[in-house]
Backbone:
């Protein structure tokens, strides 16, 4: 934790055009490692506070030009925050359009593309965790229909390949 500057990490998360995507992806991977490997949640949350980092992560989902590989790591980071504290849910719900953006990724998934499918599966995990505290927000964003459609399409693809 000591060798990561949270301000730099946050700055890199907020990049997102052209070559900056590489920096954004590095920051996302670093954040995931910090969250996953932290042995002290309180210290981790002091270094990378949810009140600052979750809105930045949600804004990545609001960027329609963000590629699937960046979004998949973003969804993973959000999942790690939610795994540590269900209180993080309200920070995600508080970002206007964030839940809808997660749901929309299930609608546009390319099931034959591994990265796209991984992203969709990670989005389902995020929506599931959000539902433990804010199921109404997921329902209002059309989450139920999006998840059910994703499941239906996944089963069709699986059955077609058998």
Residues:
């Amino acid at each position: 934790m000591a060798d990561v500057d949270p301000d730099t990490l946050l700055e890199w998360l907020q990049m997102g055009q052209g070559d900056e995507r590489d920096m954004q992806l590095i920051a996302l991977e670093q954040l995931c490692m910090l969250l996953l490997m932290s042995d002290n949640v309180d210290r981790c949350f002091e270094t990378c506070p949810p009140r600052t980092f979750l809105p930045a992560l949600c804004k990545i989902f609001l960027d329609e030009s963000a590629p699937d590989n960046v979004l998949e790591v973003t969804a993973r980071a959000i999942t790690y925050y939610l795994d540590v504290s269900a209180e993080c849910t309200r920070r995600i719900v508080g970002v206007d359009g964030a839940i809808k953006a997660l749901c929309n990724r299930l609608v546009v998934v390319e099931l034959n593309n591994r990265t796209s499918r991984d992203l969709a599966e990670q989005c389902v995990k995020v929506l599931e965790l959000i539902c433990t505290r804010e199921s109404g927000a997921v329902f209002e964003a059309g989450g139920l229909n999006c998840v059910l459609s994703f499941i239906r399409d996944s089963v069709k693809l699986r059955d077609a390949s058998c």
About this structure: The CA atoms of residues 1 and 38 lie 8 Å apart. The mean pLDDT is 91.
